[in-house]
Amino acid sequence: YIADRHLAQADCNAILKALQPIFQEQGMTETVHNWEDHGYLVTYIKKNGSFANLRIHPHGLVLVDLQSYNDHMKGREETDQLLNKLEERMKELFHGSIKRVKRLPTILRGGIIDRYWPTADGRLVEYDIDEVVYDEDSPYQNIKILHSKQFGNILILSGDVNLAESDLAYTRAIMGSGKEDYTGKEVLILGGGDGGILYEIVKLKPKMVTMVIFILYAKEGRMFDYVINDLTAVPISTSPEEDSTWEFLRLILDLSMKVLKQDGKYFTQGNCINLTDALTLYEEQLSRLYCPVEFSKEIVCVPSYMELWVFYTIWKKQMEV
User: Fold this and answer.
1) In this predicted model, what pLDDT tens digit does every residue of 273-296 receive, in sequence order?
2) Fold of 107-162
3) pLDDT tens for residues 196-233?
C-alpha cells in the first residue's frame, strides 16, 4: 500500500491499531518493533507456523508479507481472505487517499515441482509447469525436462532454461530466419545437442551437415558454407579477464572464421536484449578476430524465454581489389 503523503508517527500508530484486530482474529501472537522516525516492523505468528510481517514506513509505504505452510489451494484461499480484510481496512482508514495498492501473486516454495526460473537479465518468472519429465545429474551438469502447459517440454541445464518445444522461433533465427539457401551446402553445427537445428536443416537439402567439436576441422583444413554456433550465449559477465567463458567464445569465433568459406556465414545467438553491456562487449570482440568481419543482428521473441533474444549473422569482410 502506498499512501499519497508522508506518514507521521501518529499515522503509523493508527495503521498498526487498525490492522491489529484482523491478525488477532487469526489467533496470531504479535511482536512490535518501533524505531523513532523509521516506523514499525510487526510480526504475527500463528500456532501452525504461519506468520505475517507488517512493515509501516513513514514515507507512506506499508508492506504486508504472509507466509503459510498448508494445503496448496487452502493456503491460498486463507491468504486471499486475510489480504482482502487488510485492504478494506486500509481504504477505510485513509478514505481514498491511498495512491496505489499492489498485490503480488503467491509464491509457492518447496513444492514438488519447481515453477520458478530466472530470465537472463535476472527477473523471476513463474512457469506453468505440471510435470517433471526427467531430472538427472550427468558428469557435467544437471539435466531437467519439465512440461509446461503453454510451451510443452522445456530443457533446463544446470538451472538455465535452454529450449522448449514451442521455440521454433529460436531455431529459425539461428539458421538465418528463412533467408538462406542451404541446398547443396556444407554446414557445421557447434553444439545443438537438443537436435532442433539438425532436424530443421536436413529438410533444406544441404550436401552435408556435421555436428562435432570443430577444432579438429580447423586442423584438417575443411571449409564450410555455414557455421551455426549453438554452444553458449554471450556471457552475462562484462569482465572478460575474469570470465573464462569469454576466452572460450573468442576461441570459437576465431576458429569458426578459419573454417568458414570466404562467402560463408556464421550464425549464433547473443543474449537477452536488456543485457546491452554484454552485447556491446561481444560486438567489440568481433573487431579483434584474425580477419576483419561484418555483422548484422536480429531481435526475436522466443516464447519460453519470456524475453526478447538477440541473434547475430557474421561474415568475412570482402576486401576491395
Assistant:
1) 999 999 999 999 999 899 999 999
2) Spermidine Synthase; Chain: A, domain 2 (2.30.140)
3) 999 999 999 999 999 986 656 666 778 999 999 998 88
For strands 186-191 and 224-230, give the pairing: parallel
CATH architecture of 2-100: 2-Layer Sandwich (3.30)
Looking at residue 11, what is its pLDDT?
81
Candidates 284, 41, 39, 268; CA nearest to 173 is 268
For the record, the C-alpha cell of 2 comes out as 502506498
- Residue boundaries of the structural domains of the chain: 2-100, 107-162, 168-316
Alpha carbon distances (Å) from 271 to 161, 179, 239: 12, 21, 16
Residue type, 211: M
Closest residue by Cα to residue 34 from 17, 50, 48: 17
Cα–Cα dist 196/168, whole Å: 8
pLDDT tier for residue 190 given thresholds of 50, 70 and 90: very high
Find the length of the chain: 321
CATH fold of 168-316 reads Rossmann fold (3.40.50)
In angstroms, the CA 267 to CA 176 distance is: 7
For 146, residues 6+ apart whose C-beta sits below 8 A from its C-beta are 113, 114, 127, 129, 131, 132, 133, 153, 154, 156
Q: Which residue has the cell 577444432?
A: 215
Active site amino acids: 230
pTM of the model: 0.86
- Which pLDDT belongs to residue 243? 65
